[in-house]
Amino acid sequence: MFNPSKIVGLPVSRIDGPLKVSGTAPYAAEHYEPGMLHGAVVLSTIATGKIRNIDTSKAEAIPGVVKVYTHENRPSAAWWDSKWQDSVAPPGSPFRPLEKPHIQFDGQPVALVIAETFEAARDAASLVTVEYKAEVPETDLHSVYPKAYEPKKKRSGIQPPPKPRGEPEEAFAGAAHRISAEYVMEGEHHNPMEMFATTVLWENDKQLTVHDKTQGSQASRDYICNIFGLDPDDVIVKNAYVGGAFGQGLRPKHQLFLAVMASLDLKRSVKVEMSRQEMFALTWRPSSVQTVSLAADADGLLQSVMHHAVQATSRYEDYQEVVVNWSGLAYKCDNAKLTYELAQVDMSTPGDMRAPGAATGVLALESAMDELATEIGMDPLDLRVKNFIHFDQNGDKQLTSKALHACYREGAEAFGWKERTAAPRSMRDGHDLVGWGMATGFWEAGMAPAEAKVRYAIDGKVTVSAAATDIGTGTYTILAQLGAEAFDVPIDAVHVAIADSTLPTTGVEGGSWTAASTGSAVQIAAEAVKATLLDMAQDMENSPLEDAKPEEVVIRDGRLVLDVNSQVGIALSDILASKQLSSVEEPGKAGPDMLQMRTFVSYTHSAVFVEVKIDEQLGVIRITRVVSAIGAGRILNPKTARSQILGGIVMGIGMALHEESMIDHRTGRIMNHNFAEYHVPAHADIADLEVIFVEEHDDKASPIGVKGLGEIGIVGVAAAVANAIYHATGTRFRHFPITIDKILESELKRA
């Protein structure tokens, strides 16, 4: 269907860019109407226990305060857990704000102050006093590790570990080379620039327009309709612009419930925006302890792979990720044992954070592969190439494509890997120890059911509509590119309508499936429009397209023409005029091919190469170069795609060196719940990042040949950094993040 005047595949700047850089793109908290009320949340100061008494009298005395909600006066809501479970909820009992006096985690909302102004609400919230009966919290994963268990009920969409294959223990015991190591990763907390907020515009007792920070407008709509018994036709949820999410916005947050609750109760429009501290009571990448055991023969061929992981979860939900499965499909090995357990802590339920499961599991696997290469005396890249595999041993399925060899080759060449000297501490730059490390990345390239509509108007304007979300990944732009190319019009002739719950149904924006899913639905809808136009053209008298088939015609220069001869065709305006129409609109629907999935599975792949320089005396670590080679099928827009990988690399560096949720295990409280003390990579921490997209054709991963890019950029980065640090220092660090104190301690021991 695509025409010679290609725009798909070009590095088009984001069409929403001007609005964002000029500050005129309205986010969830930036909607207002006269008379709007404002809310401020009071947070618990214990991690577990019970509220003995809560005094709101001083808060209620503040001028402008309208009402203070607590568990004692909260309006009624749905009773059954099923009504509170959102579309991606794990098994368990979802958190219900202000329902009971019981405290389940640090920072739990215990009161909501509603006032005429934000300042009044904020000040009044500081005057709410709460008396607690605190209990002794368990927030240290190591202390609850012995209580780990296999979750009986699996999380929907999360593949449990496959059954063991071969004889992994026996093969491990008899192998020429063996390593077994434990890898610990502290929890990480999301810190997007835009904090969570909900603005509810109350119209009447039933009708609401809600502006919510979410990765799925329809998910938020269904959540509040289920809880409050509202008709979905009476509720509109919009999320036009989202200032960072990457998993944190997949599940509705408590400010959505609280804002809607107050609006319905007070019959007024209400806005509730979280503070930065509040954000730390939300989604977090769970802490984990992983043991990886690898064995190889004298030639470096893997003989045994065993990977066990324990992840933290809350007391009330069994949050689960795909952590260990990657070790069973990454490299060829006939003997594998993969096990996964949870351990409950007194914290909020963890949640998806960019490449959930893979970022964690591959960190351990790829660190262990580096250790095995050292044990064998083999180049780390050669070890991976030697154990390359062309199918998925976990499910015994073929791959739709795998360009990992090209990633290894092109990434290594761009990085200059062949110049690496093998011995640790053998490369220097003045006072700096230089280390080169690498790792492989994997992520599932899936599709979710998605619908879209495409309309072509007689004036040549194209409208693409779907409920999909753009969290900064470029969804607006790539959908506009697909629409522009389908109808051979400039991109500014395409209007993209997304991020509205009334639009055609899509899933939440997550899993790196939006481009493949919604993009395919747009293409299918565009093809349907073309087919309808052809039917109309063939009804016209003396139509030159009378015998043409849909696959034989394309749209060029405002005309429906034969693909092989553009001289034969009819102007689209004439076709529409023949039916007295000003436009034609058709739906499109895309989703995974269930029959194909019985035989094939699809993944994106990467090869990450990292250079670190470490001051031998000060222990300061600098990431001086990163090369990330990506195999992800067809690239719709190299500019937005590159941005995705750059963001993933930076987050991977954060995982390796910076990000750590510091908890006082005596109180169960998060101590660094702010930007000053929760460290994320800053500009000074990032140097030369190079992204390479290798050529990869895939006609099975999705109808448009696309594999998702949101997650693959982070997978393997932290391991590559850790491996580079080992190469620089000769010390293996297995506790993440690798902070300067750990480097200094190891260097002092060496001295």
Automatic annotation (TrEMBL):
Gene3D superfamilies from the UniProt entry: Aldehyde oxidase/xanthine dehydrogenase, a/b hammerhead, Aldehyde oxidase/xanthine dehydrogenase, molybdopterin binding domain
Gene Ontology molecular functions: iron ion binding; oxidoreductase activity
Domain Aldehyde oxidase/xanthine dehydrogenase a/b hammerhead: 22-136
Segments of this protein annotated with the region Disordered: 148-169
Stored InterPro entries: Ald_Oxase/Xan_DH_a/b (IPR000674), Ald_Oxase/Xan_DH_a/b_sf (IPR036856), Ald_Oxase/xanthine_DH-like (IPR016208), AldOxase/xan_DH_MoCoBD1 (IPR008274), AldOxase/xan_DH_MoCoBD2 (IPR046867), AldOxase/xan_DH_Mopterin-bd_sf (IPR037165)
Stated name of the protein: Xanthine dehydrogenase family protein molybdopterin-binding subunit
Organismal lineage: Bacteria, Pseudomonadati, Pseudomonadota, Alphaproteobacteria, Hyphomicrobiales
